[in-house]
Specification:
Protein name: Type II secretion system protein GspF domain-containing protein
Radius of gyration: 25 Å
Distance between the termini: 42 Å
Keywords: Membrane, Transmembrane, Transmembrane helix
Length: 273
């Protein structure tokens, strides 16, 4: 029974951390998507060890399920925060890139030349998102130099680099209708700058709400500590199975639901889908 339970918990943990889809192992000409790095193996091993120790020490199914539910919620929220932070970083890099390309266009360079110069320079830094962006614009510049549609390469990266995809659509329209690229890219730059300013202002105004959500999430732990200090032994009841196990599992489920609800409210208020 114990071995089966540990295998079940380990399988659930592996499903939570996830494995790369087969499509992400196929080579591509351009990086259409930059997958988020999976948590390292040591994180999964540590989480599995914690679950195993919890089951061995308590021997209660309700305790193991509570630990699994809490771990899954925390890992999911952590991954969503990482994804949101990466999306914001992509917007910042896109603003830097558009500004650099605009400067080259005003100096008399063509769009492929400006993109090639940005791909070869270190203006974007050395982060993972910056490396993917340099590879993307390098492929677009190379295709345009050989008579292809460089804008199509940028447009294909809609899911990963939406600002560059918009630049690619404008580039195609400019080549088709003979429109100068400078005023079009200036409009894109103003839109990205306005988005970044709105995000910074919203994040600053939501810091109080985030702190309140964290404090409310910690209140059950404070209650358990107060009960223990008064000699009520709440942990013995919660970890002893039976009615205490039901109360523990119900309380953890409600806390996890509250964490997700607060996260969704704050993300929606901040303009993050």
């Amino acid at each position: 029974m114990m071995t089966s339970l540990l295998c079940l918990l380990g399988g659930g943990l592996c499903a939570l951390l996830g494995t790369p889809r087969p499509s992400r192992r196929l080579p591509r000409e351009a990086p259409r998507a930059l997958p988020l790095r999976r948590p390292p193996f040591i994180l999964g091993a540590a989480a599995a060890a914690v679950l195993g120790v919890g089951v061995v020490l308590t021997g209660q199914l309700s305790t193991a399920l509570s630990i699994s539910l809490l771990s899954a919620t925390l890992v999911s929220l952590w991954r969503r925060r990482r994804r949101q932070a990466r999306t914001q970083r992509v917007h910042e890099l896109s603003a830097q890139l558009v500004g650099h390309v605009l400067a080259d266009l005003r100096a008399g360079h063509s769009m492929p030349q400006a993109l090639a110069a940005a791909a070869e320079s270190d203006v974007l830094g050395s982060s993972e998102a910056a490396r993917g962006m340099r590879t993307l614009i390098g492929v677009a510049a190379t295709r345009a130099h050989h008579g292809g549609r460089g804008g199509a390469v940028l447009t294909e990266a809609q899911n990963t680099y939406p600002d560059l995809a918009e630049c690619g659509r404008l580039w195609d329209n400019a080549d088709r209708h003979g429109i100068p690229m400078v005023p079009l890219l200036e409009h894109v730059q103003r839109r990205i700058d306005a988005h970044l300013r709105h995000h910074r202002a919203t994040a600053a105004s939501l810091q109080g709400a985030q702190a309140t959500a964290l404090i409310l999430s910690a209140l059950p732990l404070v209650g358990i500590a107060l009960g223990s200090s008064m000699g009520a032994h709440p942990l013995r009841l919660l970890l002893g199975g039976g009615l205490g196990g039901i109360l523990l599992l119900s309380g953890v489920a409600l806390c996890c639901a509250g964490l997700w609800w607060c996260h969704l409210i704050i993300s929606t208020a901040g303009g993050t889908p």
